[in-house]
Design goal:
Elements lengths: L5 H4 L2 H17 L5 H17 L20 H23 L3 H11 L5 H10 L9 H6 L6 H6 L13 E4 L2 E4 L6 H13 L12 E4 L10 H18 L6 H12 L21 H14 L20 H13 L2 E6 L4 E6 L38
Antiparallel strand pairs: 1-2, 2-3, 4-5
Length: about 375
């Protein structure tokens, strides 16, 4: 007995979503990085499971379900978002630099969901218990700013008490109770590592008095700390696991070669079209005049490139320069962060013999040499 098709078992919109899920999982399996393939496979499944309209569906992976009263109202919007993600993966597999760079940034936690997961781990105290019973039995000790500002906001616990270092200004630093957060933030500012706008300092400077030389209101002081914390968390690049950072470093310095290229599989049950059927298919596609996506177009900056080990090595070097790993120095009893850099790439410049007469009469900046002035007689 033949099995029913998707159109017979589900509605049109449900069948479209299932086709999108299969296409996304298929395209993610061709990504040129093993870590990216694993991350996007899990990420795609969790995104689709979060929007399950069935309230009785079991939540086996502890996924936060979306509270949707009318799932059909948002279905078209969510499907468009899935199409955008599918085109991004297709363009990355075609070798376009910008989509491939974005895929690697998401896979290695520089942007996107994994960055927030790594950030949550960084914001925990070293060796802190995660069980609810231990947290409930632990004594609650107020942080310095929580007592000063009379607030129990969660972000106030990361700061030390204000200290007057400059005349008329307080400096508020990250507390020593969070040494991993403090060392990552400090070293990132020192190395000037950032994806966008870089951070100027690893502490907050705030005036002691307002413009009327009166003590700063508590609400304004609290808002200054909140704004600085929000900006810092939006620019902070959390550390990678040690094993993952070491693998990236080995790829960059050449100890480990890139061998993650996946050859596209032949779709099951596809037969070669005859010449007549192929001509009819081309005519039919021309009559429909479907709009091409960026994954199908080849123009300007969207040109496709052949993914090679040299290309992946440079991308890994850029990722490594924005990543760090943490290790605990037992001799000094403190955490240390090690950041990557482009110097690990070790590419030698190519020297070509050039005739000296070609650049005669010009300086190294390309300007003409001044002729010596004649002395007056």
């Amino acid at each position: 007995m033949p099995l029913p098709s998707l159109q017979q078992s589900f509605s049109t919109s449900q069948a479209k979503s299932i086709h999108l899920l299969r296409a996304l999982l298929r395209e993610s399996s061709y990504l040129p990085d093993a870590n990216a393939r694993s991350f996007f496979h899990t990420y795609i499944l969790n995104r689709f499971r979060a929007y399950q309209p069935n309230p009785k569906a079991r939540n086996t992976n502890r996924i936060k379900k979306k509270a949707i009263s009318n799932p059909d109202a948002r279905l078209s919007h969510v499907q468009r978002t899935a199409y955008k993600g599918l085109n991004l993966l297709r363009r990355a597999n075609n070798g376009e630099p910008r989509p491939l760079w974005k895929v690697l940034l998401m896979a290695y936690g520089r942007i996107g969901k994994r960055r927030f997961d790594l950030l949550d781990n960084l914001l925990q105290k070293p060796g802190a218990a995660s069980t609810e019973e231990t947290l409930a039995s632990a004594p609650t000790e107020l942080a310095p700013l929580e007592g000063m500002y009379h607030s129990n906001k969660a972000w106030l616990k990361f700061f030390d008490a204000p200290k007057e270092r400059l005349k008329g200004k307080y400096t508020i630093s990250i507390s020593n109770r969070y040494p991993r957060l403090k060392v990552v933030l400090t070293t990132q500012v020192q190395n000037r590592v950032a994806l966008g706008r870089s951070m100027k300092r690893a502490f907050l400077e705030t005036p002691i008095n307002n413009i009327w030389e009166r003590p700063m209101p508590i609400k304004r002081a609290r808002n200054d700390v909140r704004r600085w914390y929000a900006f810092t968390m939006s620019r902070l690049l959390p550390h990678l696991p040690t094993e993952e950072w070491d693998t990236l470093h080995a790829m960059v310095i050449g100890e480990k070669r890139w061998k993650d290229r996946v050859v596209r599989r032949t779709p099951a049950g596809t037969n070669a079209l005859s010449e007549e059927d192929h001509s009819l298919a081309v005519i039919d596609a021309g009559i429909r005049m479907d709009r091409l996506t960026k994954a199908d177009m080849r123009c300007g900056q969207y040109d496709q490139h052949r993914i090679t080990s040299h290309m992946m090595r440079r991308l890994y070097a850029k990722i490594l320069s924005m990543s760090c790993k943490l290790k605990f120095d037992e001799a000094r009893n403190r955490w240390e962060a090690q950041w990557g850099s482009f110097s690990h790439l070790g590419l030698s410049s190519m020297v070509v013999p050039v005739d000296d007469a070609l650049f005669a009469g010009v300086t190294h900046k390309g300007t003409l040499l001044e002729s010596p002035r004649k002395r007056p007689r």
